[in-house]
């Protein structure tokens, strides 16, 4: 059924059953059914469901034939189609409500049988309009489908009848692809130069090409001769594509857009002194112009009421449908889809949480935390163990070992000297030398690690912990805010919204720039903003991107699209071109061009002045004595401890001398 949704085809059979001779009715019925069945077999694939729409009363039916005659005709037609066993059939009728089924939503071919009037083409077209209008009221009409209208009553001017049908279906239902079959009287000389027998029935097929290179054209596409067999004069495709790859005639699209800074900016372009034309700049504008240029289409901007906010003015025009295309950074949303049809996604943006950037960590604090407490404990234990082992080995080998290792104080001195990387006394025995060598290797490793981290942290001590997800934002206790009016128009409260509003009362951020500035300067506020709009704020008001931080995932994803009226025939060709442009990466180029335009017009766009506090850390800085504070503090501490030890030894010495 996926193929059916992608390739919708509607078949419409308009049966005019005006008979003057009941003896000829059976033959005409047989020829009509044979011709219709042949067209369906050749042009409607069997995997597509088929809908048969029977006619209604339309009030006064004095000009309609008797019920038994046209009912018999419908029965014969349904029987002939059903005998093929190729299509899944579904029937409907005006003024009768039918049950909605899943099959009805997937129908791709619809056959209409409509009573016509012998009072002229206008009455016949009106009855057909009533039939199609009922399908629209039931919300089952696809005006992009192919309508096959079969007329059984011979008119003096079949082309005039076809023109009236084309005009009615186009004006009232915006139906483009229509095929009209009309019977032709016998003993008529055709373009082929052949005459037909009295028992042969001839049908002409008319179709309309509104986008033909020479303009709106109604053409005779083929003729069928029907007696015992069906013979085609031209063997033409009765349902050719009516929407060209490139439009050849002069087609002007009425386009709705508005200035929406910073996405779309208006530029006054004067054609003469008395007339001023408005042009627009922006990524969407570039995409729109390139798409229409590729399709050979031109456009004209439709004015809107400037006293009404742009979003409301565009939505009001979308409801009336009095345009060909609309865009102004408009999101894909189910409420808007009730009134228009979207294009493929032009670009993707979304709501992001913007949070304070982590503050730089002080260098002294970072350096003091190079080694964790457990590492310091292991160092002290290792130092004590080595000192004890060396003293025990020296005591055991007192005769051969160096005298500088025979006391505990000397062992502590030598172990400490090795740890600091200064000279120490050389041991004599093999066991002592082994322990001494292992202690040198251990101290060298610890010293190398310490110096590496020490140098790195002097250059850049790093930052505090960044808020990375929504749970951390909740637990941080930050005040937050967003544009409640704009957000509420497009999103319903989700679980995250309810949880957030329960914990904290949000601040209304109708002024987007002030809220973002508060995030940068105060570091106690978070805001929910559209990513694309925030890029504009960063470009215009901030010197560095690093001043504003955000959560990685979008809180809400927004697809920006073009909108077309319901049933627009320009939607699919424009979609095809837009997809190719996006796949080629040109949309990214348009976005970069727009950012460059922001920078160029920065002075004129930045209508407000903000004092921005720079909390970032420079990549390079001048190394000064202040960066060595930890070393000087360590030296002062060492000198102080040494002085205390010296005074204590002097005091002990004096006391010993007195005794």
UniProtKB/TrEMBL annotation:
Protein species of origin: Coptotermes formosanus
GO cellular-component term (any): plasma membrane
Family (UniProt): Belongs to the glutamate-gated ion channel (TC 1.A.10.1) family.
Signal peptide positions on this chain: 1-15
Gene Ontology BP term (one): detection of stimulus involved in sensory perception
Entry GO MF terms: ligand-gated monoatomic ion channel activity
Name this protein carries in UniProt: Ionotropic glutamate receptor C-terminal domain-containing protein
Membrane topology: Multi-pass membrane protein
TM segment ranges: 375-394, 436-459, 630-653
Localization annotation: Cell membrane
Domain Ionotropic glutamate receptor C-terminal: 373-538
UniProt cross-references to InterPro entries, sorted A to Z: Insect_Ionotropic_Sensory_Rcpt (IPR052192), Iontro_rcpt_C (IPR001320)
Tree of life domain: Eukaryota
Keywords on record: Cell membrane, Glycoprotein, Membrane, Receptor, Signal, Transmembrane, Transmembrane helix
One Pfam family, short name: Lig_chan
């Amino acid at each position: 059924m996926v193929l059916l949704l992608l390739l919708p085809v509607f078949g419409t059979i308009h049966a005019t059953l005006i008979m003057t001779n009941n003896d000829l009715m059976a033959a005409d019925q047989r020829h009509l059914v044979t011709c219709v069945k042949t067209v369906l077999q050749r042009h409607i694939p069997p995997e597509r469901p088929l809908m048969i729409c029977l006619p209604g009363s339309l009030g006064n039916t004095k000009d309609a034939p008797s019920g038994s005659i046209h009912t018999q005709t419908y029965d014969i037609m349904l029987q002939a189609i059903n005998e093929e066993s190729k299509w899944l059939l579904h029937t409907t009728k005006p003024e009768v409500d039918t049950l909605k089924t899943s099959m009805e939503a997937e129908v791709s071919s619809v056959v209409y049988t409509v009573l016509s009037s012998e009072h002229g083409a206008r009455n016949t077209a009106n009855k057909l309009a009533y039939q199609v209008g009922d399908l629209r009221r039931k919300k089952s009409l696809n005006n992009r489908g192919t309508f096959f209208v079969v007329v059984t009553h011979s008119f003096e001017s079949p082309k005039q009848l076809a023109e009236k049908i084309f005009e009615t279906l186009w004006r009232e239902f915006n139906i483009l692809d229509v095929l009209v079959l009309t019977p032709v009287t016998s003993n008529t000389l055709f373009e082929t130069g052949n005459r037909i027998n009295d028992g042969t029935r001839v049908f002409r097929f008319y179709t309309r090409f509104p986008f033909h290179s020479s303009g709106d054209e109604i053409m005779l596409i083929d003729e069928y001769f029907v007696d015992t067999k069906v013979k085609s004069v031209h063997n033409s495709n009765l349902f050719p594509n009516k929407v060209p790859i490139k439009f050849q005639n002069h087609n002007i699209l009425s386009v709705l857009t508005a200035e929406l800074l910073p996405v779309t900016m208006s530029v006054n372009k004067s054609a003469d002194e008395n007339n001023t034309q408005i042009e627009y700049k922006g990524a969407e504008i570039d995409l729109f112009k390139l798409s229409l240029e590729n399709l050979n289409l031109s456009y004209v901007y439709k004015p809107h009421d400037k006293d009404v906010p742009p979003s409301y003015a565009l939505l009001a025009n979308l409801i009336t449908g009095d345009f060909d295309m609309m865009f102004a950074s408009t999101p894909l949303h189910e409420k808007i889809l009730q009134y228009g049809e979207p294009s493929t996604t032009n670009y993707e943006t979304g709501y992001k949480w913007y949070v304070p950037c982590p503050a730089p960590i002080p260098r002294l604090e970072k350096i003091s935390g190079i080694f964790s407490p457990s590492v310091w404990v292991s160092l002290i234990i290792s130092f004590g163990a080595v000192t004890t082992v060396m003293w025990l080995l020296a005591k055991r080998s007192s005769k051969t070992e160096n005298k500088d290792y025979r006391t505990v104080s000397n062992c502590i001195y030598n172990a400490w000297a090795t740890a600091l990387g200064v000279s120490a006394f050389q041991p004599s025995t093999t066991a002592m030398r082994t322990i001494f060598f292992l202690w040198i290797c251990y101290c060298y490793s610890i010293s190398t690690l310490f110096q590496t981290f020490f140098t790195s942290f002097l250059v850049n001590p790093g930052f505090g912990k960044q808020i990375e997800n929504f749970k951390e934002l909740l637990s941080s206790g930050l005040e937050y805010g967003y544009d409640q009016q704009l957000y509420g128009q497009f999103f319903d409260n989700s679980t995250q919204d309810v949880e957030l509003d329960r914990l904290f009362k949000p601040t209304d951020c109708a002024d987007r720039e002030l809220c973002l500035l508060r995030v940068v300067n105060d570091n106690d506020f978070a805001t929910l903003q559209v990513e694309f709009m925030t890029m504009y704020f960063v470009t215009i008001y901030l010197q560095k991107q690093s001043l504003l931080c955000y959560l990685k995932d979008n809180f809400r994803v927004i697809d920006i699209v073009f909108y077309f009226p319901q049933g627009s025939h320009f939607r699919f060709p424009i979609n095809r071109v837009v997809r190719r442009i996006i796949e080629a990466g040109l949309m990214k180029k348009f976005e970069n061009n727009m950012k460059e335009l922001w920078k160029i017009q920065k002075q004129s766009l930045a209508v407000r002045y903000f004092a921005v506090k720079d909390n970032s850390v420079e990549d390079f800085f001048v190394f000064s004595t202040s960066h060595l504070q930890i070393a000087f503090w360590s030296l002062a501490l060492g000198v102080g401890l040494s002085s205390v030890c010296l005074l204590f030894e002097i005091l002990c010495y004096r006391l010993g001398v007195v005794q």
